[in-house]
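Summary for the steering committee. One of the milestones for this cycle was to obtain a three-dimensional model of the protein with pyridoxal-5'-phosphate bound, which we needed before selecting residues for the alanine scan. The sequence and ligand used are listed below.
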Amino acid sequence: MMYNEKVMDHFQNPRNVGEIDSPSGVGEVGNMRCGDIMKIYIKVEDNIIKDIKFLTFGCGAAIASSSVLTEMVKNKTIDEALAITNNDVAEELGGLPAAKLHCSNLAADALHNAIKDYKEKNNIP
Amino acid sequence: MQRIYMDHSATTPLDEEVLEVMLPYLREIHGNPSSVHVFGSEARKGLNEAREKVAAALGASSPEEIIFTSGATESNNIAIQGVARALSSRGRHIITSSIEHHAVLDTVKYLGQIGFEVTFLPVDQYGMVDPDELAENITEDTILVSIMAANNEIGTIQPFEKIGEICRERGVYFHTDAVQAIGYLPFNLKEQPVDMLSLSAHKFYGPKGIGALYCRKGTKIRQLCFGGAQERKIRPGTENLPGIVGLGRAIELATTDIENRSRNLAALRDRLIRGLLEIEDIRLNGHPQKRLPGNVNVSVLYVEGESLLLDLDLKGVAASSGSACTSGSLDPSHVLMAIGLDHQTAQGSLRLSLGKSNTVAEIDYTVKCLKEIVERLRKMSPVLKK
Ligand SMILES: Cc1ncc(COP(=O)(O)O)c(C=O)c1O
Ligand SMILES: [Zn+2]
């Protein structure tokens, strides 16, 4: 198997799959290079991400990085969530094969887009 | 857990009978076929017999028309670059198709960079080259046409005899990459209008790293490597004798009873296709009839190919995909793009290539697994409109 155990665990048992009814923010990114697509839904209360869900069209690395991201972000403040980078996601997974790094580079971007969407809807600068 | 191998287009396991004939050449028969002494003549005998077997299996006029190589990659390079170099003063135009293996495609592209003119013929939605379109593209300057006999990804079988006839009429050399066709399509090169043909032993239960180029007598070709006088100097270097002997036995086995074996394998293939097409939003890639008996290639909409492969592997089924995420090159398969698939449909491609070990029970198990896998992955898909 080309992925480590943690990646395979998230691929086989992805956490927080699905959509959120009336979310506070939604972010979607498509990978212009390989075609993977990721969509993140967040529910924000008192500046804290209370709930997060994802949908992903993509390879093992893309699915696992979406899944692990949702775990990293849940119950974090908006500012803490904004500080998470694509690199942090890959590290949290215990590393990815070099050729697959770009596939994981969507997760943090999708999250940041969802936060941007939330801020715009609520007129938060 | 049972392990089910459905990736025979990538490579096949070594046949026991092939291993048997190779073993003496890895043990006691160690001579160099070029040597004068008895060790040499013993080795030479094995070399000659293998060459005769390959020639007989292909229906060649003479064993001399068989040149042993390290595999089809090298055979394709020798054929294409060899003709280009031999005939560059006569013409500089080469025609190929847009769905060739990279061993042909990239060789021709390279020649394009060093002053040759190259035409990449398009294919239709099933992956078929149009012989009339080929005829229209041949000019005074054309020296070589290279079109594969059957495609490794989607299994489409080309009208290569018709293509060869056109080439012969127009006085242009015709080379075909027949790697995937050996053992499934009968060849009789004495009669068929083919000047050069490439093959690789590991695709038909022979050893890896050994192949051959059939090169019709009189074909003008210039060597790429320089050295000894082996293989009519077209491919110098001390022969890989265990491999060559294995290739001889493997092609003999592969070309015995082609019709029956192909029919039986096609029945398994069709059962698999029928089962897969029960899944919603799935399409068959390649030609519905003119396809290799072991090839199944589908696109599962709304999911990506590598995730299909991972899930299948976890259930013990080995397959492959033309998805960008599995290619390492970040682009989906050029074959799938050439038959007109959009990016996302190419991403969801899955190739299951069957061989002699596969059973009806394995087919049914694979279909059952895939139904569950597709359902699981589609639940995660943002592109599926619910
Ligand atoms: C159509 C075709 N041509 C050429 C090759 C190259 O064969 P080899 O890797 O044995 O040189 C392959 C193998 O993948 C193939 O399928
Ligand atoms: Zn990917």
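Key point for the committee: The interface with chain A takes residues 302-307, 310, 313-314, 323-326, 328, 330, 332, 343-344, 347, 379-383 of chain B (CB under 8 Å).
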